[in-house]
Amino acid sequence: MGDDLIHDQDAGIERLLHIMRCLRDPDTGCPWDIEQDFDSIAPYTIEEAYEVADAIQRRNWAELEGELGDLLLQTVYHTAMGEEAGHFSFQSVVQAISDKMVARHPHVFGDENRDKSAAQQTADWEAIKAAERAGKAQKGALDGVAIGLPALLRALKLQKRAARVGFDWPSTTQVLDKLREEAAELVEAQNTLSADEIEDEFGDLLFVMANLGRHLGVDPEAALRRTNAKFTRRFEEVEARLAARGKTPATSTLEEMDALWSDIKAAEHARA
């Protein structure tokens, strides 16, 4: 029956769960898979989530299908290890998230009125989450914001939590003033500060930038990914144009590369 399930392409999630159990079998499984634990697999989970986001950003739907499968495998991997240790199972994880979605959408699955604005639904969602945190003995406004999140994303979540209890600048103008202040402090003191102090001041500047993004309705992680993609696209075009001249960046001057960059940027703006 086990071999039949492994090769049954119509078996759905049960097939994948069985494959993982086989890979983790201490007697007949894969040596690499057997050695893994939550800590060793966690970085792969984060990487796969970013690859999903990358496929979406590039609108590559065929690739997205594969990346979603890779991400699903991460959930299966963690739940297999959880089941082995007696912590939880795939079914209990599915039950927990299903229960959570039902509880957090009383306007869909309960008796509450569905005729609400998106803003009111968001406020209700946050109220439900706050009640859940209280039930977990999370008393502080910042409790439960995962330490392992990417730094910019965690900064954004910390700021949102603080804003809910009134700790926030009332306008974007004040955030911009703080941004100028932090930038000036870093520039003025860069020659007198220690490396640790420079890192601290630079962190303050990035934190304010994340806050500015929140006030502007911009996701700083998404904005930086977009800029990374733009930089990559333009620099690769610089390399291509240099190659047409029989040159590389290493054999070119900064002025030459900067001129090509400006031409590429102008051409992109003309097409927009």
UniProtKB/TrEMBL annotation:
Highest taxon in the source lineage: Bacteria
E.C. numbers: 3.6.1.9
UniProt keyword annotations, A-Z: Hydrolase
Any one GO MF annotation of this record: nucleoside triphosphate diphosphatase activity
SUPFAM superfamilies: all-alpha NTP pyrophosphatases (SSF101386)
InterPro entries registered for this protein in UniProt: MazG-like_dom (IPR004518), NTP-PPase_MazG-like_C (IPR048011), NTP-PPase_MazG-like_N (IPR048015), NTP_PyrPHydrolase_MazG (IPR011551), PRib-ATP_PPHydrolase-like (IPR021130)
The NTP pyrophosphohydrolase MazG-like domain, residue ranges: 36-109
Gene3D superfamilies: MazG-like
Signal peptide interval: none
Keyword Transcription on entry: no
Protein name, UniProt field: Nucleoside triphosphate pyrophosphohydrolase
Organism expressing this protein natively: Roseobacter sinensis
Gene: mazG
